[in-house]
Amino acid sequence: MPETWWRGAAIYQVYLRSFADGNGDGVGDLAGLRTRLPYLADLGVNAVWLNPWYPSPMADGGYDVADYRDIEPVFGTLTEAERFIEEAHALGIRVIIDVVPNHSSTASAWFREALAAGPGSPARERFWFRDEPGDWKSIFGGPAWTQLPDGQWYLHLFDPGQPDFNWTNPEVHQEFHDVLRFWFDRGVDGIRIDSAAVLVKDFDGGDPDGYTDLDEVHEIYRGWRRLADEYDERILVGEVWFPDQERFARYLRPDELHTAFNFDFLACPWEPAALRRSIEQTLDTHIPLGAPPTWVLSNHDVARVVTRYGRAETSWDHGNRRDGVPSDLELGHRRARAAALLAMALPGSVYVYQGEELGLPEVDDIPDELREDPMWTRSGHTVPGRDGCRVPLPWSGEEPPFGFGAGEPWLPQPEDWRKLTVEAQTADLGSTLNLYRAALRLRRDRLGDGTLTWLESRPDVLAFTRESGLTCVVNLGADPVRLPPHESVLLASGTLDGEELPSDTAAWLA
Ligand code: GLC
């Protein structure tokens, strides 16, 4: 049994704008989410993580936060958020929210105050204002410095609507401690820390990447951990994207973050040797620290897993998103189902991004004028960006909006999603939704935190056993493979051929 809830949790990521719309304005909201809580309880997840829900001009889907202590009116009210937390808890679901400490919004009180106070003022010291721009590039494309009418420039590693905080200023530290307390006091169980590794800047070293993973960032999280530890079982989850495992592990030292997203696994191609290496390396990094690994196949920033795994090149690379690259969706679908059983059988916690349980593909044909991702505009309309994985969920019915809400969804849903609705998949025993339901339920009883033992297998097969006796076998080769000895087949991602496990299929055995 997991020692604490988060060590072996299945965490469902809710992209609120696209989950369920309660008031008919075409945008998902808390009212919609609250009515769908029974769906999440039935799915069998232990926790939800919600993307930012704060007041925001939506320059970057809410990652431009205007007020860290309130709720975006399009999503609802603070009172509704408090009710939602209570209702989730009553169903045994913990709540993780997103906190964005690297940057704010140009609409925030602090930034407006800084603009009004003018150059040289203490209000400008909370951000990075300069008389001359530096040469860093924005992660969304274009320069990272924008000039104001008064002549000064301000730093934004992301969109110009997202001015970076100055973390050498003690006021900024104090502010975020207060924000964490604000939400912990309201019963929030965990914080997902956005862009966790880029808070500290080194402008003088001449490095074009002088903001990634500087040593001083760890002191910030030590302070956050002390604060979280004053409460009961509250966790800090880092969004830490970089390949160096040794540097990654430093965020998981016992006095820092509880867990961090395993993007190495997400980015890994659907290839047996690479996956085995990623899994082994993940376990080697985490076990000595006593931190549970996490397993992530998708989120709101990357192409849907069905689409990725159906492409000729199945790895993920932020710098080369391969938007619009053709994909064999049937193949991708088969692999995504096998990958889900793999991820859910591994020791640690697992994330499910909304729609992953429905096998939704990436939507590649969103009309240009409807695209909202700043990557699209900032890249000069060369990178379509992340809207294709953020299309509102199909719940029921034969045509859009597929039960998402009464209004026209903020991004159009493909007509053929009628086959992928929650309603259609509930009725179909072999559906991806029913596979996820069954797997999450079995996982709850028999898996979660712990270790694994590899079984001997062909090099193109991954096979391991967990403490509970459950064996997971994944066939990544072209030829069928004979299942190892077992009492029964608990679950399979595709149809077995007697004792043979077909290509791109996974099975759980007792
Ligand atoms: C993180 C978020 C992403 C956002 C960025 C800037 O990477 O996941 O959606 O655009 O931070 O806040």
TrEMBL record:
Cross-referenced InterPro entries: GH, GH13_cat_dom, O16G_dom_2
What sequence ranges are listed for the domain Glycosyl hydrolase family 13 catalytic?
Answer: 13-390
Would you kindly state one Gene Ontology biological process term found in this protein's UniProt entry? oligosaccharide catabolic process
Under Gene Ontology molecular function, one entry of this record is: alpha-amylase activity
Q: Which Gene3D superfamilies match?
A: Glycosidases, Oligo-1,6-glucosidase, Domain 2
Task: Fetch the SUPFAM superfamilies from UniProt.
Answer: (Trans)glycosidases
Family statement: Belongs to the glycosyl hydrolase 13 family.
| Name of protein | Alpha-glucosidase
Upper lineage ranks? Bacteria, Bacillati, Actinomycetota, Actinomycetes, Streptosporangiales
